[in-house]
């Protein structure tokens, strides 16, 4: 396949790759991009809204006096629990999402997960006013439904993504995470200032509901059941994946092989490490900018979005570059995963330490932006690695790794809340040093444990061995017949 920018590919469609609307698989990618846009906009809006919900507001009373009030008088530790509550539910369903997506179709589970979260987001203002316990419950249930999204999308790629386009398709879709963050953070600040903190949840909830209807209409389980796909493109995808039309995929996961695989556990550690730094900043960056850098609410939203804008752009670059290095034969798949992932982690370690050590608005925000942005290259490592090890088990593998990788979303905001109880700069330094240390651990473990090859325990490897046995049987039978004939003649 020619992988040069703007080139045509051998799928029978006379159009360059950038004309994504002419290829059904890239329509799926585009809709998945918008889906992840909603995943993260629905997740991060509270990170900005909580600043407006808990800040001291100047209030002019009828008697002419001036005072200060808060919508919600929550301590920093309680805010940490509110921000992490989403992940209490989220950690429960990644594994389940990977399992049921293989059975019912990743597209259905992906859509329902995000659509339900959008509806619950619309109820968040009512929940907050009813009490912190009700708000925590709503956020936990949101997490339960969003927890299925990442494993389900791997089930979608296992049926739609040719191996030579796998990294770029997944990376483009995952870029929606950061597009959602880039839009949601500043827009949440604007909405909160203009129409009150409640408007943050209403706007993003409605956007999520509209996307859900479009996804369910346009995206199908696989090329075989998509009525809009061209015959040439369908045959191209099936041939690239080694499937035939009408083939039923009966998936029985090799649990012993999965749970004893060094490559799987290296992937789990890498996913955990990336998410620790990512979730720390995702949930706490607006608060850090307000408390330690003394930014106003509206500015915290805009500044918080900058690192994710850089990461979203670099995801397109890293995904294409990873596929290009493989297709040109410059690097093996294992080398691509190792160099991209560990190079990113090492750079993130350095820039988190430097940013925390300096702790000045300009240099620190620059270091944070570089650290978060370079995480795009890690996503071309661990985030696609599941599909390398076993495409048919990729949803389950993502479910396992994402379950462990959700722990930082629960633990990090709580730890940060306790560490930064006095809101001092030195306390925030400790938060960043912890994140840097975890990046470094992930770098070392993934470097030595990573594999980009189909694993011996995988379903695909077992099928290949079975096919080889079937092919050798006629040869052995013919050899035996010839031997008998010779002996008879003698």
TrEMBL record:
Gene3D superfamilies: MFS general substrate transporter like domains. Pfam families: MFS_1. Residues 27-454 form the Major facilitator superfamily (MFS) profile domain. The keyword Cell membrane applies. One of its GO terms (molecular function) is symporter activity. It is found in: Basolateral cell membrane; Cytoplasmic vesicle, Secretory vesicle membrane; Cytoplasmic vesicle, Secretory vesicle, Synaptic vesicle membrane; Lysosome membrane. Keywords: Cell membrane, Cytoplasmic vesicle, Glycoprotein, Lysosome, Membrane, Symport, Synapse, Transmembrane, Transmembrane helix, Transport. Its main location: membrane. GO terms for biological process: carboxylic acid transport; monoatomic anion transport. SUPFAM superfamilies: MFS general substrate transporter. PROSITE patterns: MFS. GO terms for cellular component: basolateral plasma membrane; lysosomal membrane; synaptic vesicle membrane. It catalyses: N-acetyl-L-aspartyl-L-glutamate(out) = N-acetyl-L-aspartyl-L-glutamate(in); L-aspartate(out) = L-aspartate(in); L-glutamate(out) = L-glutamate(in); 2 nitrate(out) + H(+)(out) = 2 nitrate(in) + H(+)(in). It is a multi-pass membrane protein. Receptor for CM101, a polysaccharide produced by group B Streptococcus with antipathoangiogenic properties. This is Sialin. The lineage of its organism: Eukaryota, Metazoa, Ecdysozoa, Arthropoda, Hexapoda.
